[in-house]
Design a protein that fits this description.
six-stranded mixed sheet; 5 helices; endonuclease; Endo/exonuclease/phosphatase; GPI-anchor_lipid_remodeler; exonuclease; nuclease
């Protein structure tokens, strides 16, 4: 009888340890993209707590944030990305796009693991238009696999000229990528538009193309302009994508995608 009890205990322990290891070494990646309106909610109040709450509830591994201020006058010289990193327990890197209001303005990336390498890539833009940037990072998953994560924000003007050039620049970027990559951000155009169509020649998207859930404006979403995409197409598998509805935290709704890095075959 004692032998049976000990045997059951050992089996339970081994099963628990295997499950824990599988969870720790998972190739699933939870990606969140969120335009945070420089920390101002839709009533005009500065509120990082509500933004942090949206992020924490999503429990992401990687976060791409757009419209991030760094020590500008309109945020009272605060480093809002570092504050969000503290509130979420994630590591942060700020990607400057331009000087603005006595400080800087651009994108932010949050990560559950440390960055191996980061690079700020200036995107093409017309001389009179707002500068844009992409943050290219290299990091390791809990499984030990190395990937790239890119956060960006495309131009918003109706003519779409800058967006096309920015999409072309992102596609060219694939030539220098050493590892499988994920890109997330506010791309300011709808599915089927010329810039998104161009991107999807090289990248695959996580949204349902038959029913793309709108992300903007947050109170009554009409259009999808926030995306998670990945490269190369055959290296990733999409498990889930959802729009996180919150009409107060920002004028955009966040998008959460859960994707899996496929195991490499021996002949790859």
């Amino acid at each position: 009888m004692k032998f049976q009890v000990y045997f059951l205990i050992i089996c339970f322990f081994l099963a628990f340890r295997t499950t824990a290891q599988d969870q720790q070494n998972t190739r699933d990646v939870r990606i969140l993209t969120y335009n945070i309106l420089h920390g101002s909610n839709t009533t005009g109040d500065f509120d990082l707590d509500i933004i942090a709450s949206v992020i924490n509830k999503a429990n992401p591994d990687l976060v791409a944030l757009q419209e991030v201020d760094f020590r500008t006058a309109r945020v009272n010289k605060r480093d809002i990305l570092s504050e969000l990193a503290v509130k979420t327990g994630l590591t942060s890197i700020f990607i400057k796009a331009m000087d603005y209001d006595g400080g800087e303005y651009g994108e932010g990336i949050l990560s559950r693991t440390s960055f191996i390498k980061t690079e700020n890539i200036s995107l093409p833009h017309s001389p009179k238009n707002e500068p844009k940037a992409a943050g290219l990072t290299t990091l390791a998953l809990s499984s030990g696999d190395t990937i790239h994560f890119i956060g960006t924000h495309f131009d918003h003007l109706p003519d779409g000229i800058d967006r096309m050039e920015q999409a072309e620049a992102i596609n060219r970027l694939t030539k220098k990528l050493k590892y499988p990559a994920i890109l997330a951000g506010d791309l300011n155009d709808m599915p089927g538009s010329a810039p998104i169509h161009l991107l999807e020649k090289s990248w695959a998207s996580t949204y349902n193309k038959h029913n793309p859930a709108p992300t903007y404006p947050s109170a009554n979403p009409k259009v999808k302009i926030d995306y998670v995409i990945f490269y190369p197409k055959n290296k990733w598998k999409v498990h889930k994508t959802k729009v996180i509805q919150d009409s107060l935290a920002s004028d955009h709704n966040a998008v959460l995608s859960i994707i899996e890095l496929k195991k490499q075959k021996k002949h790859d």
